[in-house]
Amino acid sequence: MWVYAAISGVVAYAIYKERQALGCPTIPDGTDCDNSNGKAVRGTRPSPNESNEVIFSKIKQASDFADRWVTWRIALLASVPCTGFIYFFLYRRMPSEQELLVNMFVITAVMYFVFNFYKFHLIDHARNNIMDGVDIISARC
């Protein structure tokens, strides 16, 4: 039973932190969340009245969004519904504590690997191309 409580606590904390990272901090006045203020994109929106250097800096920062994700947290949160689907819909029973731990660990590890695989093989190359393009344009200005 303590495993269910521990996992519930970790998942609740991960949801709380992910909500903050998406731009939903605890706001006393109760205003709605704004994803444009999330950790990955905060401060990257260019404005026409900014200098070219500031805009180039914001483009570089926006292209580097994947380094500001907390990948393990996303993978952990996605493993919860996956594990629930496996046991509640396929097996029609509650998982044992060991099954819950193993399934969540395996699903989290696989998703973490997939995220990092795509980051290394796709996102990092696109970011490097953006950075090089911005450097070339800023050298011409």
Write a structural description.
This protein has a domain at 43-140. Helices cover 69% and strands 0% of the residues. Helix 1 crosses helix 3 and helix 3 runs antiparallel to helix 4. The protein is mainly α. The relative contact order is 0.12. The chain is elongated, with a radius of gyration of 20 Å. It contains four helices and no strands. The model has no long low-confidence stretch (mean pLDDT 87).
Helix-strand layout with pairing:
Blueprint: H1 2-21, H2 52-63, H3 71-91, H4 97-140
Helix pairs in contact: 1-3, 2-4, 3-4
Intertermini distance? 64 Å
Q: How would a crystallographer describe the biggest sheet?
A: none
Q: Helical percent range?
A: 55-70%
Question: Based on DSSP secondary structure assignment, what is the total number of beta strands?
Answer: 0
Indicate the multimeric state: single chain
Which percent band covers the strand fraction?
under 5%
Instruction: Give start-end ranges of low-pLDDT stretches.
Output: none
pLDDT averaged residue by residue: 87
Number of helices: 4
**Helix/strand-derived class?**
mainly alpha
